[in-house]
């Protein structure tokens, strides 16, 4: 059984591409990880890593050994998780990165519902739109909206987010109600992350670069500016539902609203995921399966 010593540390260093990051993920000291890997290399009689002051990379022998050990660790972890799944008791911390009003108003309650069924589970939800390093930051998955950049990450569609354009009665009475997206060039538009607005009608697509008096990456701030009469906003429908229902905002350009973009669950491309992450993702997909804006 001594031949297994150091293998978890070796695999984690290879996954994290560093000893310090591996130590953080394992919850041990960097020196412990280094000792375990060094002892493993001594037993094997081969160097598994090429080390410099700034970089740790697998040697050719280390790469071959990693492929076998990764399969071994994956099988062991999945066996352990299967036992845990049968017990239906989740523990530890689920770390989620999210951004935007949709995540605050809808995804957070969905995860609260998930947490209520797993009292020993801790959920750490970070509302930040920055790009995250899933390994270094210890993030299990992220919720993102819109077009995703190509990467080594796995993206699973949570739901589609059709769009809506809206403005206040006050703004429309002062500046008129647009009847075609082309008229937006004469209006003050409230800009979120993108000032290129896309519309569609009868299989035709329209794109317009807009400008206005207010720009924010926060949907709630855009809605408030819209209600104050600063201009026309164009965002997913869920951002406006309450304000339209109570009469604070008026939909405009309805025939041209696009089907919009999608919200995604994004996570690190790895064969093994902690059970808490897999079950949380499954819960979100089921929770929003029949959800409509």
Automatic annotation (TrEMBL):
CDD domains in the record: PBP2_CrgA_like (cd08422)
Keyword Transcription: yes
PROSITE patterns per record: HTH_LYSR
Keyword set, alphabetical order: DNA-binding, Transcription, Transcription regulation
Annotated HTH lysR-type domain residues: 10-59
Top-level lineage group: Bacteria
Keyword check for Transcription regulation: yes
Range of residues in the leader sequence: none
Annotated family: Belongs to the LysR transcriptional regulatory family.
Protein's name in the database: LysR family transcriptional regulator
Source species: Marinobacter xestospongiae
